[in-house]
Amino acid sequence: MTTKASLFAAGGFMGALMGDHDWATTSLGSPQHWPQSLVTLMRVMLNSRQPMFIAWGPDRTLVYNDSYAPMLGARHPAALGRPFFETWPEVRDEVGALMDRVFAGEPVHMDDLQLTLHRNGYPEEAHFSFSYTPVPGDDGRTVGLFCACTETTRQVLTERQAASERQRQQALLQQMPGFVAVLGGRKHVFEYVNDAYIAVAGQRDYIGRPVRDVFPELRDQGFFELLDRVYATGEAFAARTVPIRFTDGDDRYLDFLYQPIRDEAGAVTGIFVGGYEVTEQVRSRAALAESESRYRTLFETIDVGFCIIAMKFDETNRAIDYRITEANPAFERQTGANVTGRWVSEFAPNLEPQWLETYGRVALTGQPAHLENWAEVFGRWFDVRALRVGDPAAHRVAIFFTDISERKRMEEALRVLNATLEQQVSERTAERDLLATIVERTDAMVMAADLDYDILAINKANADEFERIYGVRPKVGDNMLGLLADQPEHQAQVRAGWGRGLAGEEVTIIEDYGDPARVRPYYEISFRTLRNERGERIGCYQFVTDVTERLRDQAELAQAQEALRQSQKLEAVGQLTGGVAHDFNNLLTIIRSSVDFLRRPDLAEERKGRYLDAVSDTVERAAKLTGQLLAFARRQALKPEVFDVGQRVSGIADMLDTVTGARVRVLAEVPDEPCFIRADLSQFETALVNMAVNARDAMDGEGTLTLRLVRGAALPAIRGHAGSDQAFAAVSLIDTGAGIPPERLGRIFEPFFTTKEVGKGTGLGLSQVFGFAKQSGGDVDVRSTVGEGATFTLYLPEVTPEELPASASRPDHGMAPLGAGQCVLVVEDNVGVGQFATQILEDLGYSPTWAANAEEALDRLGRTGNGFDLVFSDVVMPGMGGMALAKELQRRLPGLPVVLASGYSHVLAQEGTHGFELLHKPYSAEQLGRILHQVLGLQSGHRSV
Q1: Which of 130, 500, 545, 832 is deepest in the core (most CB within 10 A)?
Q2: Worst-scoring range by mean pLDDT, 20-24, 283-287, 666-670?
Q3: In what residue span(s) does the PAC domain sit (predicted)?
Q4: Is the pLDDT reported for residue 691 higher than 70?
Q5: Which residues, in sequence order, are CB contacts of 730 under 8 Å at separation 6+?
């Protein structure tokens, strides 16, 4: 038994405090009844100098040692024996979740947890490093938490202050106008660079790298040696206008200082680098010298006359003479006189007074002057600019002048020409006014607007019509959208139409506009871009015609033509129905006659076999006939497979002689390389035969039919549909017939559309080709010139050889393999077909069970499959169909195989089989046996239980 004296004896102040504490008033109870784990941890805690505490029991009762007490501040010693969050309510959000993890058995450790504590009566930031250890009870569940912690607040705040000081120093260095870097150690490793340094030396990987690695291009330029000397001697080095060449190859110039950095002992530990780039100053000085040289060269070579004169005034400040102190060679060329150093009164005593007055005013006032004047003494016109230079008291004026005598002559000629042009402009203005009158009086509606929908021009017809359909009359300067502000639906329509024109689109549209409560006619509207004299787009204009009556007439004509087409279709359907009925009656005659003979008991075995073969062959022919009808209607469920289209084209070409006749020559052009597509092989061959028959009829039974295969063709844009750059196999049938008129090309693939005589065709052949191409992910195109034949091209997507199935062999047409008692669930709503299928499966060695619908089948299968090895289901059934059943079974029992059977299903025709095996009705026992054997063989070892 644990006594207070033994437990708290070595616990210091907290031990003594705990020894005097009335533990019976806490959830821990008397120490004599404490569990051994709590006693052990209590002794560890009280004998440790590291801050520790224990939180025990559901209310997390708090006990702690002497080192932890200062962390409590004013809450010590009242916190002893109290619930943890009663003592520390402000940390519940941060610590509560951590303690929950510990009491769930997970230890927690954190190197730095920041908390805001109120332990001294005010909020203060505190940081702790601690570990929470779960303490298990006798039953293994966590009953307590043991924490060893260290308060790191002072350390964190000290580091934060140091970091702030470093940032402040770096900010000061960053703000310095010159470049700054700090290098450390004998290898001069970069410790800091400011943005100005990077701007000078370029963006590089600086920090932590020696200067020789960062600037390999500075080798042999002396900078590394200077750094070594400063570090070794401790003496600073400064230099001005030092050339340096970086990797860009341009010479730059620097003023810089290398200042040694010392530690407390005075030893050099690094170098401070500072300075300025003075490249521009160096270049400016060089440019100034070069400019002075150029000025002298320019002064000597320019064509503009230049001179500097010194003015002479009388006592009333009236200009009476000037002396030319300096003149360039052009002066002599322009004036024909060499007068440098002479007074103007000497070489031009009769110079017009205005020259002296102008130059004198410039010299006295400093205001520049610009004038064009005739100088009689030189016999020329001059353009002159004069400005004062130098000391105003010296009365010096710089003069630039150009001989403009030729320009003056041309201006006079231009004046005469302008007088002639004014007459021409007047005549053209009259023409423009006439055109404006025509636009204003025409019935066509015309309006122009700028890019903000403001009306620039509008004729009367347009204004009248706008008012008629919207109830508001527009005028030049109005904003179209503003006029319709209270008619938002019409405003949006106007914005959409005009927006296309104002965006630069030149387009013609036909659309109805206006308020239906008033009138809403149809208009043909043409938008054209409006540009200014510089070719810039500034708006657009429209020509509008009311086409309501024209569209009504066209609609009536289209209705009449559609009625005619419908009657033609009905006639074709009647012909097709009669032909189909005739063919089926023939087939039924064979079957009925054979069955009648088979009922005779005295029929010989040889004749019985003959009649059975006749029935079987007739069923195959009937199935083929229904398949062709479905293909014509594009309702056939395709069975795509990968095959070499070149081989099939060659094979079809060899057999087309029997279709086209002896007078049609059939050629095949197939590349040597294989070309693979994925499509229904039977439908592909049927499509080629249909196009061949069409070509034969177009050639009237005589000509040349070429079958051509092109690999890797791009799909062009056909009938308004976008093309594709992916690889397509292009199979073309090219005939030498009469060709197809352009007006018939757009309808050539319509069902029941035919140009043949009555009784010569139903118009379904090319429709089958179109439907097959679309269902196979491709398209069909026709190109024709009347008198030169036609080319029909079937485009089907190519596939790579890797997409070939693992086994492409044809199914064995021998006897069907027998089953071995596998359980098959037959789902068929037709009683006769269901019973017959069940009987066939029994004869084939299977154990069948029949369900009359999908719902019954799901009940029989349950959640585990109830021992069934396969489901054989019809597709078209009342309620849930076979495809929906297969998908549901795929979800519930993914290991249970499903085989579907159908004579026709629009679901299969539109969506495909979704990966399920499909058996076409009518089917034979051999076909059923083979597909079941194949599916069960693939699923062997995966039977659903």
Answers
A1: 130
A2: 283-287
A3: 235-290
A4: yes
A5: 709, 710, 713, 793, 794, 795
Six token digits for residue 17: 């405090």
pLDDT at 941: 34
CATH of 176-282, one of 2.30.40.10, 3.20.20.70, 3.30.450.20, 2.40.160.40: 3.30.450.20
**CATH superfamily, region 823-938:** Response regulator (3.40.50.2300)
Of the candidate CATH numbers 3.40.30.10, 3.30.450.20, 3.40.50.300, 3.40.190.290, the domain formed by 4-157 belongs to 3.30.450.20
- Please give the model's pTM, rounded to 2 decimal places: 0.31
Give start and end residues of each alpha helix (H) in 830-905. 831-843, 854-861, 882-892
The full DSSP string for 129-170 is EEEEEEEE-TTSSEEEEEEEEEE-HHHHHHHHHHHHHHHHHH
CATH number of this structure's domain 302-403, picked from the four choices 3.30.70.20, 2.130.10.10, 3.30.450.20, 3.40.50.1380: 3.30.450.20
User: What ranges make up the beta strands (E) of 78-120?
Assistant: 108-117
Q: What is the pLDDT of residue 761?
A: 52
Average pLDDT over residues 76-103: 91
Q: Is 3.40.1550.20 the CATH number for 442-546?
A: no
713: helix, coil or strand? strand
Q: Among candidates 935, 927, 865, 875, which has minimal Cα distance to 905?
A: 875
Look up residue 370 and give its DSSP letter: E
Domains 176-282 and 442-546 share a fold: yes
Q: Domain ranges in the chain?
A: 4-157, 176-282, 302-403, 442-546, 633-803, 823-938
Structure letter (DSSP) for residue 798: B
What is the C-alpha radius of gyration for the chain, rounded to an integer number of angstroms?
53
List pLDDT tens digits, range 322-378.
Answer: 999 988 888 878 777 788 889 988 888 888 888 889 999 999 999 999 988 888 777
Averaged pLDDT of the chain? 83
Q: How far apart are CA 68 and CA 111, in angstroms?
A: 17
Average pLDDT over residues 893-906: 81
Cα angle: 545, vertex 546, 551; to 5 degrees: 115
What DSSP element (H or E) covers 414? helix 405-441
Q: CA 185, CA 270: separation in Å to the nearest integer?
A: 5
User: In this predicted structure, what is the pLDDT of residue 258?
Assistant: 92
335/505: higher pLDDT: 505
